[in-house]
Design goal:
Blueprint: H1 2-19, H2 26-36, H3 40-64, H4 70-89, H5 94-115, H6 130-147, H7 152-162, H8 167-187, H9 200-221, H10 224-245
Length: 246
Amino acid sequence: MNEVALLAIAFFAGATLYASVGHGGASSYLAIMALVGVAPMTMRPTALALNIVVASLVTLRFHRAGYVHWQAFAPFVLGSIPAAFVGGALVLPSAVYKPIVGAILLVAAAQLFRTAAKVRRNDGPATIPFLPAVAAGAAVGLLSGLTGTGGGIFLTPLILLAGWAPTRGAAGISAVFILANSAAGLLGNVASVQFLPDALPIWLVAVAAGGLLGAELGARRLPTPMMRRALALVLVIAGLKLILLG
């Protein structure tokens, strides 16, 4: 029970941080479970289940606040779905691609930290070019399949650094993208549901509470520069997880 409670607290903290930038938190859940020695066959379905709950709450909150641009979301998913299948089927040495992907995330984090103070508050509509968004979705889908994440850690900084959407608009698009990818990932491997732990209901409540708090902070409370710094912190966590934990 001590381990269950400890994980619940850690999951709550991860969900709060990630939800504030429109993410579900899969990277943090995987890292937390790896650190406490949860069985690998349990980690992925558990992270996806937690991700779906948080991404659903974030999507609803950002949608109600007017930051989910459904037409902008479509081309990313169009490119990501087939690429995610390819990424999931590829067998590449983790020692090769994970440090590279982790380093890319750390570079993106540094760029977001560097530019955070210069970004003005801008909650206008997203302007997503269709074909580049399909290509970007394919790249993110491939990386998602390779790393077993919902893809938000790649999509949000890409949208922001490309200048396709303001900070909250990028978070709203990513929330829906993560929800779709996580649901597809769990449905694509229904057999893994048998490995879900008995403590899952407790953890679902913990991440739901964190997701509600984080979504409220992200949709209404956090200034735009602070959101960018929070996103940079998320990318640092995800990057270090890939480099150090695999």
